[in-house]
Amino acid sequence: MNSRLISLIRKEFIQLFRDKRMLAIILVIPLMQLFLLGYAATNEVRNIPMAVFDQSLSPESREFLDLFQATDYFKLSYSVSSDTEIRELIETSDAGVGLIIPPDYATRINEGEAQVAFILDGSDPTMATTALSAAQLIAQNYATELLVEKMTRSGMNLQLKMPLEMRTTVWYNPDMITAYFMIPGVIGMILYTITAILTATSVVRERERGTIEQLIVTPIRSWELVVGKILPYVILSLFDTVEVLAVGHFWFGVPIRGSLLLILLLSILFLFTGLGIGLFASTVANTQQEAMLSVFMTLLPSIFLAGFFFPIANMPKVLQWISYILPLRYFLKIIRVLLLKGVGLAAIKWEVFALFVFGLLIMGAATMRFRKRLD
Questions:
Q1: Could you tell me which residues come within 8 angstroms of residue 147 by beta carbon, excluding any fewer than 6 positions away?
Q2: Percent of the chain scored above 90 by pLDDT?
Q3: Confidence (pTM)
Q4: Mapped to the 3 state alphabet, what secondary structure does 234-266 carry?
Q5: In this predicted model, what pLDDT tens digit does every residue of 39-85 receive, in sequence order?
Q6: What percent of the chain has pLDDT over 70?
Q7: Is the CB of residue 196 less than 8 Å from the CB of residue 327?
Q8: Among candidate residues 216, 199, 342, 347, the one with its CA nearest the CA of residue 278
Q9: Which of 234, 249, 318, 368 is the most buried (most CB within 10 A)?
Q10: What residue ranges do the domains of the chain occupy?
Q11: Distance in angstroms (rounded) separating the CA atoms of residues 194 and 181
Q12: Got the DSSP string for 137-192?
């Protein structure tokens, strides 16, 4: 590494450390994203407020309600005395579900033909779907227990066995913690966002201040200028990656089952796409605001179509095809597989190859355009 390149890199770091607000954003924003997404962005539904209108008030109805209280899906928050009160609580979103037990429940349950009403607030489909599945499972298990108990009391001492038993095993994330899925995705978002935005704005900032012309007339070659501008952000992005990995592992308990060296090497490979997009945006923008908006035009599709929040398989076919041109799609699969499953390079070879091709094409095109702009 020659002295001109070292001097340019040193200049970039000096500018970064002088801008305290920018430095704070680089170091703090990843942690904010991590904690917000780790805690807030979750599909887990727990403690749904339930309003109960128990007209039976019998030991049988209390036994049924105890089944709901025994799970962490429902919280018996309201005991009401009319259907109207349940409607009001659901309309104001104070209750998510309502349960109405009829007056003759005790008699009907002993006869084997009881019915209860379970009301759901469908304005939140995620909550309603989870609540419906949980309620149906509770009712089915309870009905099976009552049927077996009734047959036993009637003297039918048969060895009853279900015709099918499904024994489930959850690999890699037995407790199905959403943070284990979200936090690896945050690493991809941080690498993409910081490298693209900061690279684009740093180059445009030189142009706004008029210092880019001073750099051009120096003996610095164009490739040295490109490397000198982007290398500091590569180092900062890798620091942020290690920061998020450490906090995710020690605070949220996200496992790191794969090779840490392989994770860092593939993160560097992914950096080239973000750097290329940032460098390309700097050639089409004249102000820092334009540069940021140009980057955001590529950032938003990546967030929604690359599998960061929503499964790609659930998207329409057209959007699935579009997702194939988003480098973030491949890196998200790589980082999640490496962290949670601990596989080797052979299991993700096609994703690594795709990242290499994207990085080569995007960085190559951006560098050529940048050098032409300098000339």
A1: 112
A2: 19
A3: 0.77
A4: HHHHHHHHHHHHHHHHHCCCCCCCCCHHHHHHH
A5: 766 666 788 999 999 999 998 899 999 999 888 889 999 999 998 99
A6: 88
A7: no
A8: 199
A9: 234
A10: 3-41+177-374, 48-153
A11: 21
A12: HHHHHHHHHHHHHHHHHTT-------S--------S-TT--HHHHHHHHHHHHHHH
CA Rg value for the chain: 29
- Tokens encoding 110: 């002993």
DSSP H or E segment with residue 224:
helix 222-250
Per-residue model confidence (pLDDT) at position 113: 82
End-to-end, the C-alpha distance of the chain in Å comes to 23
- Residue-by-residue DSSP string for 69-118: HHSSSEEEEEE-SSHHHHHHHHHTTS-SEEEEE-TTHHHHHHHT----EE
Residue type, 44: E
Is the per-residue pLDDT at 218 higher than 70? no
Query: Which pLDDT tens digit goes with each residue over 111-121?
Result: 778 889 999 98
301-314 per-position pLDDT tens digit: 888 888 887 788 77
Class of domain 48-153: alpha beta
d(CA 38, CA 42): 8
10 Å CB burial of residue 374 (0-12, 13-18, 19+) is middle
**Coil, strand or helix: which one is 46?**
coil
Residues in CB range of 179: below 8 A, 6 or more apart = 38, 39, 42, 248, 252, 254
Q: How far is CA 130 from CA 65, 66, 67, 166, 310, in A?
A: 18, 19, 16, 20, 17
Beta bridge partners of 76: 50
For residue 184, CA distances in Å to 198, 333, 374 come to: 21, 9, 38
- pLDDT tens, residue by residue, 132-184: 889 999 988 888 888 777 777 666 555 555 565 566 677 888 877 878 888 88
Q: Residue 217 belongs to what H/E stretch?
A: none
